[in-house]
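job 3f2a | input accepted
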Amino acid sequence: MIRRFVLCPLLYGLLASTYAQEVPRSQLVFVGEISTVLIGQDSYCGKMERVDQEDLQKVAVPSGRRTWVRYVTGGSFSGSCSLDFSFIPEVGKAYIARYSSTRGSCQVELFRIRPGLAPTPEPLQPESKRSCLLQ
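job 3f2a | predicted structure (135 res):
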C-alpha cells in the first residue's frame, strides 16, 4: 500500500514537468501610429488579446504557429484604419511590424531583425475582413 501512494505523486510530478516545459517564443515589436493592437493564435475569429501601449516595443509570441494580428488606428488628421494580417513566427527570431499611412490608405510591413544586419522583409498574409458571427 505504501508503494502505491509513493508512486502516484512521483508519476504526477514527472507528467507535470513534461507538460510544463516552456513554449518557444519569438519577439515582435510594433512601430507606427497605433491606437490598438490585438494578437491571437486560435484563428481569425478566435480569442485575441489586446497589447498594452507600453508593451508594443517587446511582445513575446509562441513560435511555429500562425499568429493573427489586428491593427486599429484612429487620428483626427489621418482618419481611421483597421488592418488584419497573420504570419508564422520562427523559433527564437525577432520581428518588427511597421504600420504606416499615406493619403487615406494604410499598410503594414513585417521585417525580421538580425543582429548586425539590416532588417529583411518577411512574408505576411493579409486577412480580409469577415464576419465571425456565423461560425
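job 3f2a | The radius of gyration is 20 Å.
job 3f2a | closed
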